[in-house]
Amino acid sequence: MTPAELAPVFFAAAAVILLTCRLVSLAAARIGQPAVVGEMLAGVLLGPSLFGLLAPGLSDALFPSELRPVLYVVGQIGLVALMFAAGYEFRAHAGRGLAGTAATVSAAGIVLPLLLGAGLTLAVHGHVGVFVDGVSPGVTAAFVGVTLTVTAFPMLARLITERGLAGSRFGTLALASGAVDDVTAWLLLAGVLSVAAGEAELIVKAAGGLLLFTAVMLLLGRRLLGALMTRPGLREDTRLLGAFVVLLGAAWFTDEVGLYAVFGAFAVGLAMPACDASERVVRSTVPVTQVLLVPMFFTYSGLNTRFGVFGDPAVLAFGAGAVVLAVAGKFGGCWLAARWRGEPGGVAARVGALMNARGLMQLIALNVGLEAGIVSEALFTVLVLVALVTTVMTVPVLSWLDRRERAAAGGSGPHQHARTRQRTPRRTPRRTPPASASGADDTTAEVPQ
């Protein structure tokens, strides 16, 4: 198929994708689910699990194999822009005084899912057909474990903002922990892929690339972005152009060294200065990113998802086990860590619920593994199921916690109660550890909205 022949196919497919994503997202919103849940479901519905099953001829005509690389590239552009905004969102809402608690929660949210996911995968080797021939079971197990450590940071940031929780203790704690989780997960994923390739040079390349990228961003990137955003007299389109040049350059470099484009995009968002010009630049990218570009990625993922594999009882049992252990490791681990650091039960439970969502970020990791040839169709589908279930359960769990807390507070709003509780003074705030200090609470309460 020539480019001239492919263009009209892309336009038709894009129209169907955008319309389907919007309709399913509206339906999801009717039952209280965030837009990302609808978009994930829409991608699955447009794939072989439903559309390809009901109308295979029409599906092949609308989504020919030649179109998939185009959807992938357009979706990657959307992911880069989305993670740029997510990095800035974290930069804008990051509070001080929670470093110790955030590190503990993040460590628990990484170690437990990693061990549980890898352990389950090794236990079923030879019994469940989810492994790729020629790929070490250890690599597959490590990949599953790493994907279960991921947190849906963009969704987490959006949920916290939409629910008015950006200044709350658990909102700020979840943002900080989620960001550390995802950065760590990408580094672990780079290591797994390097081992899978059997080339130690790739690990050295990724580690060296990370050090070089960090140095360049700290010494040059932040200054350049600061000058772009704060220099008087610059036109808005010039600021936007400059930011995108830095963004795409960072995405290219991190992709080349094996850290992947989304990591570089997130770092550029973090490096943006906190000012009105930065806010305008970031916000200008959001509508096109969310409405036009990201749905292409969800559809690309959906085209690789085949729920027919659950017709095999062994795969179905493995999928159910993966969901249970994913929730136990992430929700349970983060809840226990927060409680161990002295957080109230309500704060710890909300942090666990927010950190448990995998959403878009797990789909990104799965597609990276698929492109690397270490993920089978069956394993891809099992982990898509994990992403869907853990993402769908987030809002209902948060709503249940709100209702329970509202009842315990005698009818006051859950968010108001959470904020009031976080500002309760202690007798010696400056000598209290950061996890429970009122000074930390006051700092997070003053984070700009």
Automatic annotation (TrEMBL):
* Topology of this chain in the membrane: Multi-pass membrane protein
Recall the GO molecular function terms of this protein's record: antiporter activity
Q: Where is this region: Disordered?
A: 408-449
GO cellular component annotations, sorted alphabetically? membrane
Q: Which InterPro entries match?
A: Cation/H_exchanger_TM, CPA2_transporter, Na+/solute_symporter_sf
Coiled-coil stretches are: none
Q: Which Gene3D superfamilies match?
A: 1.20.1530.20
Biased-composition ranges for Basic residues?
416-430
Q: Where in the cell is it found?
A: Membrane
A single BP term in Gene Ontology: proton transmembrane transport
Q: Which residues form the Cation/H+ exchanger transmembrane domain?
A: 16-399
Q: Which UniProt keywords apply?
A: Ion transport, Membrane, Transmembrane, Transmembrane helix, Transport
Q: Name one Pfam family in it.
A: Na_H_Exchanger
What sections of the protein cross the membrane? 6-28, 40-58, 70-90, 102-126, 138-161, 173-196, 202-225, 284-303, 315-338, 378-401
PANTHER family reported in the protein's UniProt record = CATION/H + ANTIPORTER (PTHR32468), K(+)_H(+) ANTIPORTER 1 (PTHR32468:SF0)
Protein name, per record: Cation:proton antiporter
| Organism (species) | Streptomyces boncukensis
